[in-house]
Structures are given as C-alpha cells and as structure tokens.
Amino acid sequence: MVPDVADWLLDRIDQPARWVIELGFVVYVLSISAVVLLERRRPVATLAWVLSLVFVPVIGLVLYLVFGRRQIRRHRRRRRLAERRRGAATRNLARLDHLPHGLHEPVLGLVRLALRTAAAPLRAAQAVKLLPEGQDAFDAMEQAIERAREQIHAEFYIWRDDETGRRLTSLLATKARAGVAVYVLYDDWGSIGTPREHFASLVAAGGHVAAFGRLRLRLRLRRSRVNFRNHRKILTVDGREGFTGGLNVGNEYSGRGLPRSPWRDLMVRITGDAVLGLDEVFVEDWADATLREADDTAPAPAPKTKPPVLDSDDPGHDDRLVQIIPSGPISSVVSAIAIQIAAAAANATTRCYIATPYFVPTEALDQNLKLAALRGADVRILVPALSSSDNPLVGLAARSYYDEFLLAGCRIFEYQPGMLHAKYIVIDECVAMIGSANMDVRSFHINYEVTAMFYDRDLTTQLAEIFQRDLAQSHEATLASRRQLSTPHRLAEASARLFSPLL
Predict the structure, then answer these.
(1) Contact criterion met (CB below 8 Å) for 113 and 364
(2) Where are the beta strands (DSSP E) in 52-148?
(3) Consecutive H or E run containing 498
C-alpha cells in the first residue's frame, strides 16, 4: 500500500520540527479561514474557498491571491475625480421626494432600490431604439461616431484585431484627426489577443487609449486585479447619444465570418439625459484605469429643470424613463445589479422573460423566479444550446438547474441557430433591463457591469416581441426530455455546478 505523501514526509522529520510544521499549518488554517470569512462573500463561495485553501494549500493559496481577493484598492485621486463627475448637475433627479407621480408600485419600489444601492438617478431618454441584429448595431454606432463633433467615449470588454475591430478603430482615428476628443477603454484580459499596435493609428491621430486592469508579468499579488474584469459595453457621442448592451468589438458580434453559427446579441441606442448615466460610468472607469481625467470639452446636455414624468398629459412629451445601474468591486453595493434583477423577478405578476448566454443564478434570483412561476407568472428563460455555447462548463452548470425550475413551472428554451449572447429581461408590461451583465456569479459578484433599466410600455413590448422571435428558433427543454439524459451527462452537470461558485 502506498503511504500518504504528507505522512511519508512527516515520518522523516524529527519530532520538534514536526511539531513546528503542524503548528504552523494550524495557524495557517485558522488565519486564512478568518480572512475568507471576514470578506463576507456568499456562504457557498466561502466554503469552496476555505476547503480549497485547506486541502490543497499551495495551489489554493495561489489561486486565492490571484483570483479570490474581494477588496480593490481605492485610489485617492480616483475619488477626487469621481467628485467632479459630469452628471453632478442632475443629482437632484436622485432625490426620493422628487420621484414622478406617474410611477406605480411595485415599479416605484424598483426605482427606489436602484437609487439606494447604486445611486442611479431616474433620467429621461428622448429616444430609445433596440438593435437586435449585430450588423445593424455596428452600423448605428458607426453613424453616431461619424456625427461626433466634440467627444467620443468607447468602452468594451473585448476589442479584437479583426475586420470589425480595425474598421471601428480606423473610423475613430479619422474623427481624432478631425479634432474630436476620442477615448477608448478596453479590458486587458478580454482583449488579450489584441496587439498594442492595433491602436497605434488612433494614438498617432491624437486619440487616447487605455487598458483596464493591465496584466503584468511581475504580478503584485497583494494588489492583483486579474479576477476583476471590466465587462461593460458603452459608447457615448458628444454626451447626447449613447449605446449599451451585450456587443463587444469583433467579427462574431457583427455577424462577419460566422455564417454557420452566427452570434445573437442586442444593443440599445438612447439619446437625452440618460446618456449622462453612461458617460459617468465611462469617466469613472477611465480614471480608475489611468488615474487621469478624460480631458474633453464636450458640454453635458442641459438637465431638466423638473423631474421626469411617466404618462404625462403633455402630448409633446415622449421621454422614456431609465436608470443606468453600474455594479462592481468598487461600488458601494457590489451586487447592485444582482439585487435589482432579483427584486424585479420578485415583482413579476404576469411575465418574466430572461435572455442570457450564461445562467448560474444566485440564491435570491433562483427563489424569486420559482416563486413568480408558482404565483402564475409566465417565467421563460432563454439560453444558448450547449452545442453552440462558447463556455460548455457554464452551460453544463446551467443545465443542472433545469429540473427544479421546470418543476416550479418555469419554461426553459435553448436557442438553436448559434451563440445567444444577448442579455436582457422583460418584467410585466413596462419594465425592461438591457446591459452587459450575464445571469451568473461572475457578473453578479465580481465583474464591473452596467445595466439600463427602462420603465416604458412601448420599449417593453418591443423587447418582448424580440424575445418571442428568438423563442421561435429555440428548442424547449421539458421534464420528459430531461429524464432521458444519461447518468454520465447528469454527473457532468452536477460536477460543473460544484464549481459554479468559483466560475
């Protein structure tokens, strides 16, 4: 019988040294357990980290230092820059005593929640347009860039060095040469395959480019930000026209080069005061990445002199109400978007439609979706088919939840034509959410994300129609089909779910 490695080593160490090693290990276990417990993360994630740190101490400690740390160092200069945010002129819109009279409960409760967790003012969008086709979205963004006269802010998790990426970079360089202040922020991990030379023409033209969370060979583990990625997608032009949603900059998102397995995504274009919310997020991220302020001179849109209203009697009033909700490691409430989504699901009375590429729900979202279905709401969840998912491990983890959701009365559909990458939610008749956040642990608790929450019947109806069109190209999962799964497949799902707290 082969002896245990640890016992074999200890047998060859004299007694005093053995006591020192064992005592040191006990101190390590108590210390590292206290550190993880004091971070107050979710119980499942806490248990997973403690077990890995105790039973595989060397590997577990390295992984924890690189990927597990919860705290992000806040720079004093970044805080000072944040105090001069361009949206300061509309802070009065965040006052709870000035909320529109036209909002009804429980919608008004969702507005209050976003105000308290994310300090997200209720703003007005003069126009809102859904862009459910990748090429249409890029066409709209390129047209907006061509209209730019003063400044452009572009922030994307992935910026590829391919046809789509080079086209957009070239267009931005043209605007920079024309005197427009161009700022581009990309995530260094998400764009790891993009060479620095990709942006050389833009920088030479006078544009500004920065990488968020730059990866370094000599990693300072104590201040590591490898695990905290900026997953946001934002484009604003002159502070008056903005885009957000799920698209990154790359061929797969525009539909180029993938005829057999096209990606399905969605962006939204907004104009008016609501663009200030997106601009604020970009300016803070730029300061966080560079410790410098975006030095552009674009004037902020004039704020409204009175709070926005819903269903105004003024026939000329057609503003849509929206809150731009950011979340991330340096937010006062890290999981603001997760809380907002769970609360919206809890409020659903007639329908709750969710489209997401990755579905690993938090306990709150899990329970609220099931309760909504049990109350009689039409709960439908749309995810990509496992065969077309770009992350099979997360796809397997998602499928481990199918049985319990189906038993509660939820309906689950798998999009067949290609990779579903859109991230949006429809709640009842007048609440819709569109943004960068997936319905998984990483987006809810680790990444920097942004979501636009709309309170508008027309937009909600349009988004529901897009959802129904996607359902027509999907296969519905049923309890009957689940019973036919093999034991190895179920074991794979259960194993993937085991790792879901760390995904």
Answers:
(1) no
(2) 123-131
(3) helix 487-499
Q: Place domain 76-98+125-306 in its CATH homologous superfamily.
A: Endonuclease Chain A (3.30.870.10)
Nearest 5°: phi and psi at 410? -75, 155
CA angle 180/181/186 to nearest 5° reads 125
Q: CB pairs under 8 A, 24+ apart, for 79-86?
A: 81/283, 81/284, 81/287, 81/293, 82/284, 82/287, 84/293, 85/280, 85/283, 85/284, 86/239, 86/276, 86/279, 86/280, 86/283, 86/300
Whole-number Cα distances in Å, 383 to 147, 463, 474: 36, 16, 9
Token pair belonging to 53: 């740190």
Cβ proximity of 221 and 66 under 8 Å: yes
Residue span(s) of the chain under CATH 3.30.870.10 come to 76-98+125-306, 326-502
Cβ contacts of residue 411 below 8 Å, gap of 6+? 378, 379, 380, 381, 476
CB 253 within 8 A of CB 157: no
Beta strands at 424-427 and 351-355: parallel, antiparallel or unpaired: antiparallel
The confidence score (pLDDT) of residue 2 equals: 43
The matching CATH number, chosen from 3.40.50.720, 3.40.50.300, 3.40.640.10, 3.30.870.10, for 326-502 is: 3.30.870.10
Residue 302 reports pLDDT greater than 50 = no
Q: In this model, does residue 91 exceed pLDDT 80?
A: no
Structure tokens, 67: 């990927």
Write out the two tokens for 65: 């230092």
Distance in angstroms (rounded) separating the CA atoms of residues 447 and 72: 12
Weakest mean pLDDT among 2-6, 117-121, 352-356, 458-462: 2-6
Distance (Å) of CA 382 to CA 259, 283, 292, 393: 22, 33, 41, 17
pLDDT digits (tens, 9 = 90+) for 163-202: 999 999 999 999 999 999 999 999 999 999 999 899 999 9
DSSP secondary structure letter of residue 448: B
What is the residue whose two structure tokens read 């105000």?
A: 115
Token pair of 6, please? 């640890």
* 3-state class percentages of the chain: helix first, strand second, coil last, to nearest 5: 45, 20, 35
User: What is the helix (H) or strand (E) element at residue 28, kind and residue range?
Assistant: helix 15-38
> Is the alpha carbon torsion for 11, 54, 60, 19 positive or negative?
negative
Spatial separation of the C-alpha atoms in residues 23 and 21, rounded to whole Å: 5
Tens digit of each residue's pLDDT (9 = 90 or more) over 212-246: 988 764 444 444 456 689 999 999 999 999 999 99
In the block, residue with structure tokens 């259960």 = 494
With both helix axes pointing from N to C terminus, report the angle between 487-499 and 392-399 in degrees, rounded to the nearest 10: 110
Residue 255 phi, psi dihedral angles, 5° rounding: 95, 0
* Catalytic machinery residues: 231, 233, 238, 421, 423, 428
